[in-house]
Design brief:
single chain; 388 residues; alpha/beta; 6-stranded antiparallel β-sheet; 30% helix; binds guanosine-5'-triphosphate; CobW/HypB/UreG, nucleotide-binding domain-containing protein; hydrolase activity; hydrolase; nucleotide-binding; P-loop_NTPase
């Protein structure tokens, strides 16, 4: 296809149209998904699958790899696309567009956006053991960005691919006493977790690893996969940062006889978890008055921006000295019946009215993932609504 030619969007099949069904504003933006994951966990396998399968979507994939790996991957994709030339941008038989670039992802995306209209979704692979947090916050409500690429792109979600065999070991080795390791940051910052290579691990150890992942990130659905075989609609078009329902649909799991079936985790929800410096806290939030929602907003602001618990009790802040939030999500129900969604990445957050009210949940939920999330954090939160 000629560079100057502006292709029209393809007609989507019914399933596809559901996936990409957005309002006018969202339609004008191209959703972007970040893929991160452990070394050798199966990121390239997932990308190759997307680039070669007939799924009806035109997805631009940015392989942001260094050195030899990028070359190897480019060749592999060329073979898959029936011997196309090795180009910076490669159109593939299934309508996808591959961009293999060793530069920073941003430069690649800028180039890509000049071809806007030629694809419906962007997948950005991050290098090796990269923390997705900074890049996610760049694409999400960044004020400087809003006048540039942010006008054209909306962050859809972060996928983290975890190795079912070596994942637990990698998490252990990645730990240092002072900082949260990159692999744990990846899990913490993910909206979707792919637990891959489940064919190589015993069902028991896959269960153990899945429980570990759920402990670290209780808000992300976990899909167990073999060779990253996952229904594409489960990982793209999830709108994890939009004002929409945000928690895994339910803890009931889908059984499949086929090993490649993915399933949602179904263990009881942990309410507090701590592993090698990283912790998560899941708090049930009762129906709130508008006043309490404002107080909750202030609480979130103080914790995210100042790294401390609100109030004057010094003992609280002593204990919470290492308080830091990597990711937070919440759904709050007001006594008026309206629902509000909290989304936060690092120090950036928003609390906005939910676009799609799905049924009337009897209560809300708040998930915090970060460091220093001990029982005093929960107590401090619960005091907000205790006096209602
Ligand atoms: N048995 C088995 N092998 C897998 C599976 N997924 C990927 N592999 C193989 O594992 C190896 C590593 O997979 P990649 O997709 O290259 O992993 P990656 O995350 O892109 O690796 P890096 O970019 O080097 O970090 C390859 O040889 C894959 O064919 C799986 O589910 N089961």
């Amino acid at each position: 296809m000629d560079d100057d030619e502006v292709p029209t969007l393809i007609t989507q099949e019914e399933e596809a149209s559901t996936l990409l069904e957005h309002d006018e504003e969202k339609l004008s933006k191209v959703p972007l998904t970040i893929i991160c994951g452990f070394l050798g966990a199966g990121k390239s396998t997932l990308l190759k699958r997307i680039l070669t399968e007939q799924h009806g979507f035109r997805i631009a994939v940015i392989m942001n790899e260094f050195g030899d790996t990028a070359d190897i991957e480019a060749k592999t994709i060329n073979v898959a696309s029936e011997g196309g030339e090795s180009e910076e941008f490669l159109e593939l038989a299934n309508g996808c567009l591959c961009c293999s670039i060793k530069d920073t992802g941003i430069a690649a995306i800028e180039k890509l956006m000049q071809r806007k209209g030629g694809f419906d979704h962007i997948l950005l692979e991050t290098t090796g053991l990269a923390d997705p947090g900074p890049i996610a916050s760049l694409f999400w409500h960044n004020e400087e960005f809003a006048t540039g690429l942010g006008r054209d792109i909306s962050l859809d979600g972060v996928i983290c691919v975890v190795d079912a065999v070596f994942g637990p070991q990698q998490m252990k080795e990645d730990q240092t006493s002072e900082t949260v390791g990159e692999s744990l940051r990846q899990i913490a910052g993910a909206d979707i977790l792919l637990l891959n290579k489940t064919d190589l691990a015993s069902p028991e150890s896959v269960d153990t690893t899945a429980a570990l992942l759920r402990g670290i990130n209780p808000a992300a659905p976990i899909h167990r996969t073999v060779r990253a075989n996952v229904d594409i609609s489960k990982i793209l078009g999830v709108r994890a940062y939009a004002a929409a329902p945000i928690f895994p649909p339910s803890r009931t799991h889908v059984h499949g006889n086929d090993e490649q079936d993915h399933e949602h985790e179904h263990a009881p929800e942990p309410t507090h978890y701590e592993l090698r410096g990283i912790s998560s806290l899941l708090v049930a939030v009762p129906v709130l008055s508008r006043e309490r929602l404002d107080a909750l907003d202030e609480w979130v602001r103080t914790v995210l921006w100042e790294g401390r618990l609100p109030g004057n009790a010094s003992d609280e802040n002593e204990s919470a000295s290492s308080l830091s939030i990597l990711r937070c999500k919440g759904l709050f129900v007001l006594d008026s019946g309206s629902q509000y969604v909290l989304q936060g990445v690092r120090s950036m957050y928003e609390i906005v009215e939910a676009e799609d009210v799905l049924g009337i949940p009897d209560a809300g939920k708040l998930v915090l993932i970060g460091t220093g999330l001990d029982s005093r954090v929960r107590d401090s939160l619960e005091r907000i609504w205790a006096s209602q």
